[in-house]
Structure formats: structure tokens, C-alpha cells
């Protein structure tokens, strides 16, 4: 079924009241606050971001169907359409995203300037009067803030990273705030210092990759401010995330055309993997689109080079019907979430390296979570496919781990 159908303690951390249900009504609730505020990046659309937001909305629909949920993201209109009906009281806005991009400073300028503006505007809506109502909602109605996982913030995307300023705001106003399953790499310099100071203000902050963990916890004090966790897509154990289709091809590909200077070379390398694996021109192949337009060219390349049984899976179909992975498939992917979902289904495969500082960090996280896929690098010999998850219980185990962290808020 598709999206539409459906750790250790932190030393020295001050926590805003434990799990709310264990201690009666929180201070935020006592002040008349009723909104769960989620910060994420659905709506672009990009499959992983849609999946994570959908899974958390499903979780909240089970736990708090009567509570209003606001999702703050860059494209609230498309997000509302993609995620409609999952939670009965969900709405969508872009307050934090707008504050990060509509300010007196250059787009993706110095983080201290942009984040400073975001923090000031959250206290004084007169600085951003077009978004005063969204700011006032944060000030007066929010009972808890949850920054969902994903790779939508990194050190050089300072307009995105500035959303971490919501942590100090929440701390000041006594609003519980958590972040789960984030990946912030590459992250260094002033962006790293800003991130460290902001993360300290969250009640719990988990990341999905070891590079982000090491960066955040790597200052001279030795303080542990972040924890390592699985990807947020596992919050419900991947239940009902897969397409039910007996005719799914045995070989699947997801190969993006961004992040490389020469996409023709990348496509030729992907085709060489097929050849090395013994996949012929007349064998069934599936091409998965996670990001519209960007993931389509590999399909056109294969058709132009004589492959005549290629089935294209557009993102809209995947959002409606689920992810097209089944046991016994072999996969080639440059993307992160196809690697996760296919490997979790037990599929063998290889991931193609397209960006050492960003995507390789992501794929390393999937290997840590249980994949045994092999790494394929342009210009190097083609590897044999590696195994997927060998323990079928991992998704459910990861679900419990993620929910345990989130219990402080929910």
C-alpha cells in the first residue's frame, strides 16, 4: 500500500517533563496548547521525504487522532495533496522555511545571520509580518515540536539549516522539542558550531549516520548531545509500505541524473552493471522514479540502447500503490531510500556512489542498519550484488527504538 493509502540517555540534558502521558498534562497543554508541530520536507516531491512524513502522520493518527497536527515544509501545497487523509486534523504551512529564505540576507548566506533572523522573528512577529499568524501559532498553540528525519538540512544549505533555531525558541518557551533520524552532512565551520549550540536545546536529538553523530558530539567538552538511531521511515516497521504486484520485474534501478557532471557516463556505467550481472536487452527491468524528472533519464537511456522490456514506475504510482520491492529482486540505486526499502525486503543489490560527502554517508548508514549491498564506483570494476537485510525482525526492532525516543513528546 502507498503513502496516500494508508539509545542511551544524553548526559547533563534538561528534559521538559518525560513522556507526557506519564505525568499528566504538560505545561504547554496547561497553557491551552493543542498542536503537534512537525518540521519536515515533503512536497518537493522526493520519495524519502514523503515516506517519512507519511509514516509519522500515520503514527499520530493512531495515537492522537483528535489533536491538530501542523506540518511545516518548503512546499505545503503539494505536501497537503500527497499526504491528504492520513491524519484527520493535519494541516500544512511553510513558516520556518519562509523565515529561512525571506530575510535581509543572501540565500544560503552566513548561518549566524540567517538563523539569527529566524530566532528573532520567532520572538517578534513584526520582523516578518507576512508570517505573523504562523509565528503566533508557534508561540501560543504548540504543545510539542518534532523535527522529522531526512537529509534536507546540511551545512552549506544554510537557509534550510536555520530551522534548527526552533530548538532554542522551544527551550525558552518551555515547549518540548525533539528531532529524530536527521542527517546533516556535510557540516563544518560556522554551520557546525551553530548546529551544536542549537542541538543542545532539544530534549532529544537523534541522527541516522555516524558522520553527523561524530560532528555534533565532537567538540572539546566531550558532551553527548546527539544519539545514533535508525532512519525515521522505520517508525511503523515499514508496514503497508510496499506495492502488491506479482508482476514486478526481477531487476530494478533507481539512478538519478543530478549530483554528477556527466550523467551519460553514469547511465553507461549503470548499463555495464546490468551486463556484468547477466541482464540482457530482452530481460524485464524496472526503473523507479523517486524525484520527478531527475530519475527519468536512465529509462530513456535504456530504451535508446535496445532494452525493450523496461517498465517505468513514476513517483505518483509509487505514492499511490507503495514501493515496488519484493523478495528475490536485484537492485541498482544511487538513492538512499530505495536502498533502505529494497534491502529491508531482503533484495540484493549495489549502490552507485555519486557524492562522497553526502550520498556515501547516507549509504554507509544503510549498511550500518543491516544492508550488505556492494558499492559501485564510476571507473572501477563492477561488483557483484550484495545481500539485503538478513534479519527480518530489524524493521520492527527499529520501530520500537524510534518510538522510545519519541515517547518524551508523544
Task: Note the topology.
Layout: H1 27-30, E1 35-39, H2 47-63, E2 69-72, H3 76-82, E3 90-93, H4 95-101, H5 111-123, H6 132-140, E4 142-147, H7 158-161, H8 166-173, E5 177-182, H9 189-199, E6 204-207, H10 210-216, E7 227-228, E8 251-254, H11 263-276, E9 285-288, H12 297-304, E10 310-313, H13 315-321, E11 330-333, H14 336-344, E12 348-352, H15 359-369, E13 374-376, H16 394-406
Parallel strand pairs: 1-2, 1-4, 2-3, 4-5, 5-6, 6-7, 8-9, 8-11, 9-10, 11-12, 12-13
Q: How much strand content do the residues show? A: 5-15%
Report the strand count.
13
Total helical segments: 16
Order of adjacent strands in the largest pleated sheet: 3-2-1-4-5-6-7
Sum up the overall morphology in one term: globular
SS-derived structural category: alpha/beta
CATH third-level topology of the largest domain:
Rossmann fold
Q: CATH homologous superfamily of the largest domain - what is it?
A: NAD(P)-binding Rossmann-like Domain
Distance between the termini: 26 Å
Helix share, percent: 25-40%
> How many strands, what sense, and barrel or not for the largest sheet?
7 strands, parallel
Assigned CATH architecture of the largest domain = 3-Layer(aba) Sandwich
How would you characterize the overall build of this protein?
This is ABC transporter substrate-binding protein. It holds the Pfam family PS_pyruv_trans. Residues 46-234 form the Polysaccharide pyruvyl transferase domain. This protein is of the alpha/beta class and 410 residues long. The chain folds into 2 domains: 20-229, NAD(P)-binding Rossmann-like Domain (Rossmann fold, 3-Layer(aba) Sandwich), CATH 3.40.50; 251-376, Rossmann fold (3-Layer(aba) Sandwich). The chain contains 16 helices and 13 strands. It has helices at 27-30, 47-63, 76-82, 95-101, 111-123, 132-140, 158-161, 166-173, 189-199, 210-216, 263-276, 297-304, 315-321, 336-344, 359-369, 394-406; strands at residues 35-39, 69-72, 90-93, 142-147, 177-182, 204-207, 227-228, 251-254, 285-288, 310-313, 330-333, 348-352, 374-376. A 7-stranded parallel beta sheet has the order 3-2-1-4-5-6-7, with helices on both faces. The chain has a 6-stranded parallel beta sheet with strand order 10-9-8-11-12-13, with helices on both faces. The longest helix has 17 residues, at 47-63. The two termini are 26 Å apart. Residues 6-23 have low confidence and may be disordered.
Amino acid at each position: 500500500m502507498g503513502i496516500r493509502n494508508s539509545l542511551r540517555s544524553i548526559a547533563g540534558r534538561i528534559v521538559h517533563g518525560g513522556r507526557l502521558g506519564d505525568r499528566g498534562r504538560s505545561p504547554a497543554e496547561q497553557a491551552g496548547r493543542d498542536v503537534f508541530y512537525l518540521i519536515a520536507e515533503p512536497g518537493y516531491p522526493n520519495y524519502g521525504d514523503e515516506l517519512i512524513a507519511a509514516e509519522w502522520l500515520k503514527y499520530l493518527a493512531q495515537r492522537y487522532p483528535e489533536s491538530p497536527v501542523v506540518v511545516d515544509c518548503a512546499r505545503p501545497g503539494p505536501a497537503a495533496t500527497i499526504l491528504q487523509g492520513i491524519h484527520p486534523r493535519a494541516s500544512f504551512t511553510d513558516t520556518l522555511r519562509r523565515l529561512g529564505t525571506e530575510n535581509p540576507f543572501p540565500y544560503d548566506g552566513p548561518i549566524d545571520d540567517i538563523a539569527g533572523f529566524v530566532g528573532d522573528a520567532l520572538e517578534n512577529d513584526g520582523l516578518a509580518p507576512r508570517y505573523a499568524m504562523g509565528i503566533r501559532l508557534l508561540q501560543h498553540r504548540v504543545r510539542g515540536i518534532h523535527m522529522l528525519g531526512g537529509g534536507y538540512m546540511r551545512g552549506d544549505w544554510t537557509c534550510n539549516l536555520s530551522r534548527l533555531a526552533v530548538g532554542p525558541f522551544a527551550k525558552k518557551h518551555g515547549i518540548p522539542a525533539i528531532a529524530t533520524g536527521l542527517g546533516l552532512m556535510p557540516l563544518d565551520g560556522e554551520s557546525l558550531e551553530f548546529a551544536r549550540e542549537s542541538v543542545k536545546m532539544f530534549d532529544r536529538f537523534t541522527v541516522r549516520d555516524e558522520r553527523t553523530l561524530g560532528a555534533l558530539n565532537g567538540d572539546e567538552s566531550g558532551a553527548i548531545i546527539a544519539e545514533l538511531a535508525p532512519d525515521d521511515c522505520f517508525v511503523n516497521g515499514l508496514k503497508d509500505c510496499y506495492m502488491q504486484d506479482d508482476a514486478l520485474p526481477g531487476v530494478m534501478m533507481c539512478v538519478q541524473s543530478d549530483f554528477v557532471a556527466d550523467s551519460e557516463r553514469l547511465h553507461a556505467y549503470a548499463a555495464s552493471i546490468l551486463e556484468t550481472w547477466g541482464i540482457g536487452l530482452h530481460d524485464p527491468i524496472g526503473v523507479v522514479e523517486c524525484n520527478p524528472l531527475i530519475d527519468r533519464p536512465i529509462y530513456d537511456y535504456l530504451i535508446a540502447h535496445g532494452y525493450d522490456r523496461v517498465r517505468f514506475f513514476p513517483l505518483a504510482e509509487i505514492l499511490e500503490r507503495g514501493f515496488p520491492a519484493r523478495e528475490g529482486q536485484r537492485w541498482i540505486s544511487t538513492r538512499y531510500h530505495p536502498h533502505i526499502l529494497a534491502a529491508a525486503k531482503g533484495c540484493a543489490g549495489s549502490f552507485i556512489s555519486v557524492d562522497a560527502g553526502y550520498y556515501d554517508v547516507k549509504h554507509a548508514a544503510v549498511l550500518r542498519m543491516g544492508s550488505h549491498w556492494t558499492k559501485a564506483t564510476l571507473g572501477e570494476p563492477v561488483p557483484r550484488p550484495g545481500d539485503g537485510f538478513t534479519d527480518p525482525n530489524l524493521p520492527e526492532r527499529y520501530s520500537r527504538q524510534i518510538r522510545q525516543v519519541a515517547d518524551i513528546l508523544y
